[in-house]
Amino acid sequence: MSDSGNIVADxxxxxxxxxxDPQTVNAAKDAAWKRPLWRALEDAGxxxxxxxxxxxxxxxxxxxxxAAVSVAxxxxxxxxxxxxxxxGWLLSQAKIAAPAGPMTVAPMRRTDRIALGAGGSLSGRAxxxxxxxxxxxxxxxxxxxIALVETKACRLTDRRSLSGDxxxxxxxxxxxxxxxxxxxxxxxxxxxxxxxxxxxxxxxAGALEAILALxxxxxxxxxxxxxxxxxxxxxxxxxxxxAGEAAAAMTAxxxxxxxxxxxxxxxEGIFLEAASARIRSAEAATEGAAIAHQVHGAxxxxxxxxxxxxxxxLLAWRDDFGNESQWAVELxxxxxxxxxxxxxxxxxxx
Length: 350
Prior knowledge:
By secondary structure, the protein is an alpha+beta fold. The protein has 2 domains: 3-182, Acyl-CoA dehydrogenase/oxidase, N-terminal domain (Butyryl-Coa Dehydrogenase, subunit A, domain 1); 189-348, Butyryl-CoA Dehydrogenase, subunit A, domain 3 (Up-down Bundle), CATH 1.20.140. The protein is 53% helix and 15% strand. Strand 9 and strand 10 (227-228) form a beta hairpin. The longest helix is centred in the middle third of the chain and has 33 residues, at 189-221. 46% of the residues are buried. The mean pLDDT is 94.
């Protein structure tokens, strides 16, 4: 991580630790804590880090923004920081100025399609859009264009994810955008999906590191048969497995993030990196959540304990921007189409 990336990560860590500590958030009776948290994030320029200065953002590098994404995962971020980052990045691809306030991005499913009609209005539907109910605007990738839409102009079906975070089915029924511009040449649906998948992989890796720390601490404190359970070989074995899953997810996710940050286009190499990170991090989320709950025993399943704040989000994030099965199929199809002789040079070049 670069020096600037360290500064961004340190800033994000300090803000989340001060205003969104998982234990404090878990005990909160209402959502009043969200307002000062979002204000602090905005004051630090984090939500619009990927938006150039001239378009109303902080003008930070992709690497800096990815550093903030990883921190958001470590704190199981219950606000749309990552979604706003992605929305700002998408708008900047079409030179559309980013508004203040929380945003989200659509679509978040690989099968969803949104079109811009001849009259300049959007039509289509986006499923499972994270934090749509809390977003003032939605950055939309339609066929051949990118648009900024006011959320209140859309029809939302109010739902909750597995973790309890707001998600919505968003209907664009002849919605007229606030701004719209052509997408850059070569910018297609999978470009957004790969960027979003990498962000979710980084969030997942961060959350896995957090539940590893929680599990190690609990195993050192919980006493059974007159000694900490962390002294038992079976528990040590589980903690080692959890550490391996967290390390594998972080390695794959940071590799994909570094590749995107240093690439000029989303080529086959980026597809390999991002798809692999999505697949591996989702597998680690499933395995890691199970291990953490096994270490914690019954207490890990209670609402009073903070473990669920991480594990339920780990499981919910698996479906955003394409799940691991979809990416595995697409990756396999591309490798098969390219032929056996092209596989090793592609892998070795990473």
